[in-house]
Structure prediction request, 400 residues.
Amino acid sequence: MTTDKPARTLKLTPGAAKKKPVDPFAPRRAPVRPPGPARAKSVSASAPKPPREPAKSYGAPRGGPEGERPRSGAGSAPRGDERGWSERPAPRRADDRFAASERPQRSPAPAPRPPQAHRPDLARVGNVRGEIRLNKRMADLGLCSRREADEWIARGWVMVNGEPAVMGMPVAPDAQVEVLPQARHQQAGQVTILLHKPVGYVSGQPEDGHEAAATLIGAPSQWRGDAKTPADGRRFAPEHTRGLAPAGRLDIDSTGLLVLTQDGRVARTLIGETSGVEKEYLVRVQFMPNGHSPLRAPDGSVGAGVITENVQAIFPPHQLALLRHGLSLDDQPLKPAQVDWQNPEQLRFVLVEGKKRQIRRMCEQVGLHVVGLKRVRIGRVVLGNLPVGQWRYLRADEGF
Prediction:
């Protein structure tokens, strides 16, 4: 049986054999979009846009009259990508918020205040009546220190003209300031301690590896004479070491009477701005004529030409007069002092001020070198026979 079928022919595409393999790392190109019907053009930004509905105030209902939120579906506004470009609201412009006639007008700038005349008769804090801060007024009256006054005012222990005081309030000079018994009771429990400070201790906070003199206060170092007959029947208690502050400093290389107190009235009396309490010192000196060095050699001898014995006989009298009055420290003249010879190598100083290392610096200006300094009296309180490194309470019958 014979079937007449057309013979198949193999068609070869030119260049098919030369097709390059696909590079897997080559960047892919976006497919070419086939031509189609023309796309609708979007509305230009410059074209007029429908007016935007005014925004609702905060807290207004978001739905209908009853505040119901419309559900998505027929009749609900399109949202998200359901809304066409032509439905977007037009951007708000600052110039369109108000019309020219409705724009708010700026208020005129206030007129400058006339300069006030200087009134030196007024208090630093107060008004024309000369009022001052309450804590300063209480300190001036000798009731307490300013710090104590602030503490009492905060606790409600101070009354001004029968009313509770307020922190920082100004008071008139004729105001009636009353302290409640609670403050008096607290003040009665405060102590003042007299210490015979040794050399090598600092008066205030520890520094340069040296201990504070307050570390010596304790039961083992209390003077036996004070422990047997304590002032006002007072016995040592740990709370007596809290808040102790030195009322006047004593150099680290000096010894003698040092006052440590919890009572602000005592501190104000000794180191206040208007304090005039006398401090008496015994000072052992050497004379350095023509500026010789007072440094000691390793064998204990001093520099050549330094007078160590019978200094009184060689020291010029006019230099002694300068020690009494006429010297200055830190470009400030010193107040008059009492300076006399106690023995041929020792002077007695009585000062009413206490600048840093005052006696040593005074002596250097007249050719004297201090080799020993001891404070023996503060006001009417004397060191007496209190041993070095021991302490006692200030008695009720003592005062500076």
